[in-house]
Amino acid sequence: MRIIMLGPPGSGKGTQGELIEKRYEFPRISTGDLLRLAVSERTALGKKAEVQMKRGALVEDEIVLEIVKERIFNDDCRLGYVLDGFPRSISQAQKLEEMDGNRKEIVIEIHLPEEIIVERLSARRTCPQCAAVYSILTTKPKREGICDACGSRLFQREDDQPEVIKERLRVYRQQTEPLIGYYQKKGSFQRVDGSGEIEAVFQNISSLLETEMTEFKEQEARK
Ligand code: AMP
Questions:
Q1: Whose CA is nearest to atom 1 of ligand 1?
Q2: What is the overall mean pLDDT for the chain?
Q3: What is the pLDDT of residue 93?
Q4: How far is CA 190 from CA 141, 171, 186, 193, 217, in A?
Q5: Mean pLDDT in consecutive groups of 10 residues from the start of the chain, 223 residues
Q6: Buried b vs exposed e over 110-139: b needs ≥16 C-beta within 10 Å?
Q7: Mutational test site, ligand 1, from 15, 88, 112, 175, max ligand atoms within 8 Å of CB
Q8: Using CA atoms, how far apart are residues 215 and 221, in angstroms rounded to an integer?
Q9: Which of 37, 47, 48, 58 to mutate to test the pocket of ligand 1 (most atoms within 8 A of CB)?
């Protein structure tokens, strides 16, 4: 099984992906987090990805696919995994199917109007150490500017600055949004409204997933 979280930057894919990970015990794989880690560790892949990431553009398929390939064949992904931020184009979706085609797939699009996205991304603060995410408007840390989980100083991602946000949204519309039609045709597509509270959005997502997940886990247990 794989669950693909689709939606513009700031729609809550990461937050909801983490909740899915906790409830259904499928690891969440965020290509953005993996790329940021590669950049901060100054690996060869990270150095190649850095320029595009700063501009809000997509990193080359070759780099992203290498990262995904390395991750999805780990033992913890045997039963299933949750993809957050991948695929981001039809070509990536096709490559994913070539790489790991024999899985049941559920695609969840988190739908959100653009004004809310800009507001959310501008308010987002991130932990450089453990990748926890906060908002200066809603999910604030207990101590201003400090990560609740590990005590590191929070920062604003360079690509959460207004000009880069605009570019990321443009890239989303142009390259990622066509995936909606692609997955609708495949028949695995579900849409949820992402504008509510985190718990309410998750409630909707889990009610979509519940039957399929229960059936899937029962089948696996019988094997
Ligand atoms: P995210 O944290 O998902 O918003 O990703 C941050 C940045 O990482 C994006 O703006 C891209 O530059 C890069 N990135 C993440 N996932 C992908 C992907 N699947 N394909 C290409 N670039 C990606």
A1: 32
A2: 94
A3: 97
A4: 32, 22, 11, 10, 20
A5: 96 95 96 94 95 95 96 96 98 96 93 92 93 93 97 94 93 97 93 95 95 88 86
A6: bebeeeebbebbbbbbbbeeebbbbbeeee
A7: 88
A8: 10
A9: 58
Tokens coding 145? 């500017």
Q: Is the CB of 85 under 6 A from ligand 1?
A: yes
Q: Is the CB of 64 under 6 A from ligand 1?
A: yes
Nearest to 59 by CA among 83, 28, 38, 81: 38
Say if CB 19 and CB 180 are below 8 A apart. Answer: no
Query: Is the omega angle on the peptide bond into residue 113 within 30 degrees of 0, that is, cis?
Result: no
Could you tell me the end-to-end alpha-carbon distance of the chain, in angstroms, rounded to an integer?
Answer: 15
Q: Which domains does the chain have, with CATH numbers?
A: 2-26+79-113+170-222 (3.40.50.300)
